[in-house]
Fold this sequence. Notes:
GO terms for molecular function: ATP binding; single-stranded DNA binding. The chain has ten helices and 15 strands. By secondary structure, the protein is of the alpha/beta class. The protein starts with a strand and ends with a strand. Bound molecules: adenosine-5'-triphosphate (ATP) and magnesium ion. Adenosine-5'-triphosphate binds at residues 12-13, 30, 32-38, 59, 61-63, 328, 354, 356, 372.
Amino acid sequence: MFVRHLTLQDFRSYESADLELTSGVTTFVGLNGQGKTNIVEALGYLASLSSHRVAQDAPLVRAGAGQAIVRAAVLRDGREQQLELEINPGRANRARLGRSPLTRPRDLLGKLRTVLFAPEDLALVKGDPSERRRFLDDLLVARQPRWAGARADYDKILKQRNALLKTARTAADRQAALATLPVWDSHLAKVGANLVYARLRLLRDLQPYLQLAYDEVSAGQSDARTSYKSSMYDELADQLAAGEVPDVGELEAGFAKTFEQQHRAEVERGQTLVGPHRDDVVLQLGSLPAKGYASHGESWSFALGLRIAAFQLLRHDLGTDPVLVLDDVFAELDAGRRRRLALMVADCEQVLITAAVGDDVPDSLTGRTFTVTLGQVKADDD
Ligand SMILES: Nc1ncnc2c1ncn2[C@@H]1O[C@H](COP(=O)(O)OP(=O)(O)OP(=O)(O)O)[C@@H](O)[C@H]1O
Ligand SMILES: [Mg+2]
């Protein structure tokens, strides 16, 4: 698929922008702070309903404006669809597909797929577990949008269960306060088991692509791997870390057993200590964990390898290419890595690249160039 047209209104530094895009490679060049990343961030937001830079919506709306609008014409197999999202900080966002308003913005998911790589992705390797959980869950949703619903359900149940545990902690009659806990246990176990199962399957499917992508980027044979670090009781966690994928029923039973083991600790701390929200993915290079061991360049290649692997997996699953976005990547890479990355992305249906220095992007990636100056975008061939 590719984006043929992109419109921004009051998004970040743009009062308004209209971009006519083509398939193939497009490069946005401009000095620091001119608004290059803002463009691809808008596209990423339309695809995933979240920004790769901020957790809140307010910074996405141009200072002084009340709402932002992002609109795109997406072409897939010769069919064009108009996607529109209205970002209303503090209020519900609104989405349209073609002329029809959608009940929920979430219904937009799957209409545009992007894989975005940005400097922030170094946090996938060096950052908190929440970064890696987000990578997995976002990819789950990109693969199958229905997982967005499961994620939302899980968060709701988790909130309720935490509230209950918190109340019980200080309640005069703890037993009474915990009376409904078993109900929440079974809800959490059911939705949680499905999520963990989906993540395990995803990691298993991603593995071959990751290994290839890492080696291609780094021109080495480095055995880049992932292993799931679960909050379940030890024996089960060991199984999952070894790459086994039990069925959902076994995982659900695993929750019940772990809840039992953790009961005292959960009540004492007033929070849920088991579940996908406590899990992590260990990234490994050979026998060593990447976090704490990998060099800067290796960490960078690993993060890039994860994104390229995600792209390849989606390409394989969907039978169409997601839009590949490379934000500020080339400046960080040495000449060999630049060349190899250019080779890897040359056959993608649409690649959007941002660069402060145009010369950092290898010549082999000839495409259209836009110059970005102070929130104005202009095609060089205009
Ligand atoms: N909500 C907003 N309202 C107005 N301006 C904003 C808003 N959010 C960000 N900006 C401005 O947008 C600019 C940053 O844009 P962007 O991150 O796209 O730059 P860039 O061209 O990618 O720069 P670099 O090369 O440094 O990555 C900053 O000048 C910032 O002040
Ligand atoms: Mg930028």
